[in-house]
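User: Okay, second chain of the day. Same drill as before: sequence in, structure tokens out.
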Amino acid sequence: MALTLPSFAQTIISASNSSWIGQNISVIGLSVSNGPQYSYNIPISGRISFDPNNYNKVSSVTRLTIYARAADGFDNWTNPTSNGTFSLIVPDNGEYSIFVYPSTLDYLNNSTNIPYSIVYPDESNPFVQYVTNDSGVTGMVIPTQYIQTGLPMNATPIPPTVTPSSTTATPTPGLTAVAVLAVLGIVTAIAYSRK
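Assistant: Same drill. Structure tokens below.
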């Protein structure tokens, strides 16, 4: 079976009239004493899709983490709200690699018994965003890929039928014939030894 690798890279130029609603924001790497100094706080916001019926024990979209990595390696991150929306602040205009952790959630299609995965952008294959002005980016939709990970089963497995055990002992077929042959063999052996 051939697997395809998802590709998420694309260019999005933010609109100058973008707006931002700030919620649930976490910023990492901006307070390093000798690190880069930024003069901007650029908003990025959007939405991520999520199906809770996965086998990875990720019960809510709020358990996903969305990262925005700048070209200099600084990560800003946030967790989506319960309706899948997110917002975070990045330090400056430029290119950002957007990725999600966990990046793969596994599922089973119950009508066809085909296992599949929903794959979000990860560190090795991020979703690239270009922030070109101070208004940032709004309405970003984190892309997903559907990947079939197994072959369909021919039929749904059915447990074997178990018959109730009987309380009366029933003879095993052929046991009487074996007993008769054993007795004849003993009688023949005795008769032959007397000769």
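The chain has a mean pLDDT of 75.

User: Thanks, on to the next one.
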